[in-house]
Amino acid sequence: MKLGHQLHKAIKVSLSVLASFVIAVGLLLGGYNAPANAGYDPFIGEIMTTANTYCPQDWAEADGRTLQINQYTPLFALIGNTYGGDGRNTFNLPDLRSRVAVGYGQGNGLSRYQLGQTGGQENVALGVAVANAKVAASTDASAVAVVNNAKLQPAAVSPVQPYLALRYCVALNGIFPSRD
């Protein structure tokens, strides 16, 4: 009985070694040629930033475009008509062209932002004091200006911080995110 058990065990080990050998030889000879997949399955509605000149397949540019609800029902279930559309037949994607994204809600001591809210402006007109000034030199390299007859003149000021333009893309298909 013991000999039968040992023989069975030896055959199992031999078959396992043989199977590993066959797989290794097959791989070495190019028997497995499936493409590598280094990507991931995005969540529907996820927004990614890319330096590409286009959005990948199953993604659309976050350009405010109108989509049909019946073609993108899962995406509509997640974002509704927050970014536009009639909510019956159509809805819009967010439009992030020439915009900076900001987290919705309210941080401690900060302004409150609603999901989909837009705001801001590219130029602000400020009053700039233009005056005849007399500057007195100082020995410690500081200067004191004495201003007479000050007048305010509007001047356009750009509050835009230094930037790098990238492309925002929205996942049209993928995994429906759970609330957990």
From TrEMBL:
Highest taxon in the source lineage: Bacteria
Pfam families: Collar (PF07484)
Domain Phage tail collar: 45-100
Protein name stated in the entry: Tail fiber protein
Native organism: Pseudanabaena catenata USMAC16
